[in-house]
Design goal:
- This protein is of the alpha+beta class.
- The chain folds into three domains: 84 residues; 64 residues, Type Iii Antifreeze Protein Isoform Hplc 12 (Alpha-Beta Complex); 52 residues, SH3 type barrels, CATH 2.30.30.
- Helices cover 20% and strands 37% of the residues.
- It is built from three helices and 14 strands.
- The strands form four sheets. Strands 2, 4, 5, 6 and 7 form a five-stranded antiparallel β-sheet that branches. Strands 10-11-12-13-14 form a five-stranded mixed beta barrel. It has a two-stranded antiparallel ribbon with strand order 1-3.
Length: 251
């Protein structure tokens, strides 16, 4: 009876002694996973701020009031533990305004962990010449036809007029509605010489000055080179428009 009782006590002690190493072995493994699980969580607002700062810097050279209208990035950024750095890269041809797709590159300790495309839009307001009324094709502009107003550079793709004097005297190439910003390619210099018009052909240098009668084979504004027929020789020559009745042959 005593032997049986002693055997039970020894069995209990043996079970307890083997349980301790098993418990001790699992504890360090669980503790080693904690640093990796912690990592870095970068708030959405922080990432958007990085992109916004880049966009403002990109547009800083523009003579305009800059507003970031859209940043298509959402959600917190979960990263491994380490030092986080960011790069934002825009297309080479993007001038800093209007819509664009930029690349967001996120690194941890120099290793790329995120590379994604983000849609953005930047408004750049500046003063430019607009139509004060509807302008019909062929009209030659006066100051009263024009006004100054603040408009987004994206409306004119960078090609705009800053001063009314720049547009006065030019001719409208296509009908423009009131308040439309004037692009340089909307306008042209009105021709001084019309096709078929009789002109004086002038050829001169420091020694000789010769004139002849001619007929314009095309229309041309001041400084344009047009083809002109010499009425004496019946030959066509290239000449530059000097005024409404005179063209000059350079030689």
């Amino acid at each position: 009876m005593r032997l049986t009782h002693l055997t039970r006590i020894l069995s209990a002690l043996l079970v307890f002694s083997f349980s301790l190493p098993a418990f001790a072995a699992t504890a360090p493994a669980a503790a080693a996973k904690l640093p990796a699980a912690a990592g870095n969580v970068v708030a959405e607002a922080t990432v958007r701020g990085v992109i916004s700062d880049y966009l403002m810097q990109k547009a800083s050279a523009l003579a305009a009031e800059i507003t970031v209208k859209r940043i298509g990035y959402y959600g917190d950024l979960k990263l491994p533990a380490g030092t986080v750095s960011y790069d934002v890269v825009a297309p080479d041809r993007w001038e800093g305004y209007g819509p664009a797709s930029v690349a967001l590159v996120v690194r941890v300790d120099g290793q790329v962990k995120r590379n994604q495309t983000v849609q953005v839009e930047v408004e750049a307001l500046t003063e430019m010449v607009v139509a004060a009324r509807t302008l019909e094709r062929g009209e030659v502009l006066s100051a009263s036809d024009l006004a100054l107003a603040r408009r987004d550079l994206n409306q004119v793709h960078g090609s705009y007029m800053k001063a009314i004097d720049e547009a006065v005297g030019l001719r409208v190439k296509t009908t423009l509605r009131a308040n439309t910003p004037l692009r340089r390619d909307n306008l042209e210099r009105p021709p001084l010489v019309k096709s078929g018009q009789l002109v004086t052909i002038l050829a001169e240098n420091e020694v000789v000055r010769v004139t002849a009668s001619g007929r314009a084979k095309g229309a041309g504004a001041l400084g344009d080179v047009i083809m002109v027929q010499n009425l004496s020789s019946q030959k066509d020559i290239a000449a530059r428009v000097l005024d409404a009745t005179t063209v000059k042959v350079d030689f």
